[in-house]
Amino acid sequence: MILNAKNVNKSYKNDLILNDLFFKIEKPKILGLVAPNGSGKTTLFNAICNLESIDSGEIYIFDELNSSSGIFNKMSYMQDSKILYTNLTGWDHLLYVAKCHKINQENTIDLISDLDMKRYVKKKVSTYSLGMKQTLLLAMSILSKPKLLLLDEPLNGLDVTKCDIFRKIILALHSTGTTVIISSHNLEEIEKLTTDILFLKSGKLISSNNQQLLLDFSKQKTEYDVILDITTSLFNVLKKAFQIEKISRYKITIRMNEYEKENFIALCKENKCTIFDIELKENMTYQLYKMLFEC
């Protein structure tokens, strides 16, 4: 068992942050952790790493209690830039991590190259941009090649190129058997890595694969972009049954739920209209997020 959290509770004064939380990870995977600010994502990460005590419950990492020193070389946690020492260089930080894990200098230099850090790694952290700090934090967290990696908002401050590098690094790590949990507000980037999402709501985790959640979603009206060979007469027929807007000769936007979607496809088929593409206007994760947190 990679991670096993049992009946975890955590409160701050009168606010219940983690509410009898339970989840487990049995096989290596990439997971997204999604929730609004202040919902407890960082608290959950801190609890897993035993940086914050929990009120009750148990957390096991690779079948050892999370308070065991035995997990030190098996997992890593990327926190925010507050943990960095501004008077030290990025190189200083990486050498310290390498020394703790007995990693040779050649591997550290290779990682610096992979993350495109050469031009600033020997400068003081006080001169770094947010993106540079995030890259350094990522380097520190993956240098030991952990089998469990927690990343708290790793995409903050990263440009498109850095996001591409980040994605390749994470996928490469995962291919070697590393489990990665990513907390982020960048839902589009998370979906490029995984569709296995955990939503943290009211102190409990809800999987994006939860049957009740998907059933509720199927009843919600959502917008689709559709590419099809549509005639004026068919458009007028569809307009009577659906919320529809014609964008161009071959493109429409239509608002419908999953059941209405089946009727729409059937109606097009009856009228010998070819549908070339149909997709959600906004990604699935964002749609589920809105349903859970904005309704």
Please provide a written account of the structure.
- The protein is α/β, with parallel strands linked by helices.
- It has two domains: 3-85 and 129-209, Rossmann fold (3-Layer(aba) Sandwich), CATH 3.40.50.300; 218-293, Alpha-Beta Plaits, CATH 3.30.70.
- The chain has helices at residues 41-48, 90-101, 105-114, 130-142, 160-175, 187-193, 211-219, 232-241, 258-270, 284-293, and strands at 3-12, 15-25, 30-34, 56-61, 64-65, 75-78, 148-152, 179-183, 197-201, 204-207, 222-228, 243-248, 251-256, 275-280.
- A hairpin with a 2-residue loop joins β4 and β5 (64-65).
- The longest helix has 16 residues, at 160-175.
- It is globular.
- It starts with a strand and ends with a helix.
- GO terms for molecular function: ATP binding; ATP hydrolysis activity.
- Which descriptor suits the 3D outline? globular
Regarding CATH, which class of the largest domain? Alpha Beta
Q: Any idea how many domains?
A: 2
Radius of gyration: 23 Å
Keywords: ATP-binding, Nucleotide-binding, Transport
GO molecular function, one term: ATP hydrolysis activity
Protein name: ABC transporter ATP-binding protein
Domain ABC transporter: 3-227
How are the SSEs ordered, and which strands pair?
Elements: E1 3-12, E2 15-25, E3 30-34, H1 41-48, E4 56-61, E5 64-65, E6 75-78, H2 90-101, H3 105-114, H4 130-142, E7 148-152, H5 160-175, E8 179-183, H6 187-193, E9 197-201, E10 204-207, H7 211-219, E11 222-228, H8 232-241, E12 243-248, E13 251-256, H9 258-270, E14 275-280, H10 284-293
Parallel strand pairs: 3-8, 3-9, 6-7, 7-8
Antiparallel strand pairs: 1-2, 1-4, 4-5, 9-10, 11-13, 11-14, 12-13
Helix pairs in contact: 2-4
GO molecular function: ATP binding; ATP hydrolysis activity
Organism: Vagococcus hydrophili
Domain ABC transporter: 3-227
